[in-house]
Amino acid sequence: MNEIIKAMIARRSIRKFKPDMIPQDIIDQIIEAGTYAATGKNKQAPIIIAVTNKAVRDELSKVNAKIMGVETDPFYGAPVVLIVLADKNAAPTYVYDGSLVMGNLMLAAYSLGIGSCWIHRAKQEFEMPEYKKMLKDLGIEGDYEGIGHCILGYADCELPAPPPRKDNYVYYVK
Q: What is the pLDDT of residue 86?
């Protein structure tokens, strides 16, 4: 079995992180892998906002927790948050395109020894005026929808065991 398929099978979502920051060159490699995800007609509708600033990360966590209805950190202590958004007008496949970016980010992280997890509620966050303003302040123009947060960090736990695959996962038509 080749290394890419092994990574696809072995990668797990991590929900407990050490506070240690990931080196910038590792973050950059993960982001670059995300930018090479397949997109409908190569329209490249998604964008990635890399948040390494602790104050901004903590603000995002609080808003995400409020949307979720909890008081705990939905980012599980991860020091890096990669927010994936996609331009609604770039391609009708924008949500799928952003989802593929998320997959690439998580696989790339795993391959570099970095834990990751997909955290939802980016859609609700980026419908809020303060986050629309954040995009504008970053010079991002367009009608973007939040796809997800890819949290990154060094795992502070054992890699979870994969649950068994369900019996009726695949059907063949021959």
A: 98
